[in-house]
Amino acid sequence: MDNPIHTRCCIAGGGPAGVMLGFLLARQGIDVVVLEKHADFLRDFRGDTIHPSTLEIMHELGILDEFLKRPHQKVTKLGGKIGSETVTIADFTHLPTHCHFLALMPQWDFLNFITEQASRCPTFHLRMQAEVTDLIEVNGTVAGVRAKTPNGTLEIRASLTVGADGRRSVVRERAGLKVIDLGAPMDVMWMRLSRRRTDPPQTLGHFDRGRILFLINREDYWQCAFVIPKGTADDIRQRGLETFRQEIAALEPFLQDRIEELGEWKQISLLTVTVDRLARWYLPGLLCIGDAAHAMSPIGGVGINLAIQDAVAAANLLGPNLRQNNVTESDLEAVQRRRSFPTRATQRFQILIQNNVIRKIIGSDKTLSAPWVLKLLQRWPVLRRIPARVLGLGFRPEHVKAR
Question: Domain 5-48+106-182+274-363: which topology?
Answer without folding.
Answer: FAD/NAD(P)-binding domain (3.50.50)
